[in-house]
Amino acid sequence: MRTAKWLVALLIALALGACASNPGPPKTVRQALYGLGERAADATLAAPVWQVPDGDRVLLLAPPEIDATLAVEPDQFGETLTRALLAVDSGPQVLDWTPDGTTREAPDNQWLLESRLVAEGPPLTLSDRRLLPYRLELALRRPGNPAPRWQQTLTGALDASAL
Prior knowledge:
single chain; alpha/beta; Rossmann fold; seven-stranded mixed β-sheet; 30% helix; globular
């Protein structure tokens, strides 16, 4: 009986220790960019420009512009943003396509999403990792119209060890 109590106490201590441990830095690029993609998707879908129901929205994704000092490939960020937009319940249709400059009119439910990820200062060195401050600029505009109808800027820092 005494051994069983000791064993139960040991198992509880190990379980609590595992819960309190530091998960460490993200292990993959997808993990490092996942939160950024979710924040961008949430901000975009909360924009006040939408004039159609949630399920009828179509987003055309322009290729993202990425500051080379952040060591993020445009395709990686584009995939993360696409996945985050598609993961939203009743979210938009997402097309990885940008209309050419000759497009004059588009249906009311089509919007072009442009994104630009810029380094926002020097890397921050912590005891166990390096963080890369960023500024993500998002803009929604109508195809054929160069003026954005909505803009949002998100700031934060990416974990360099996962990039």
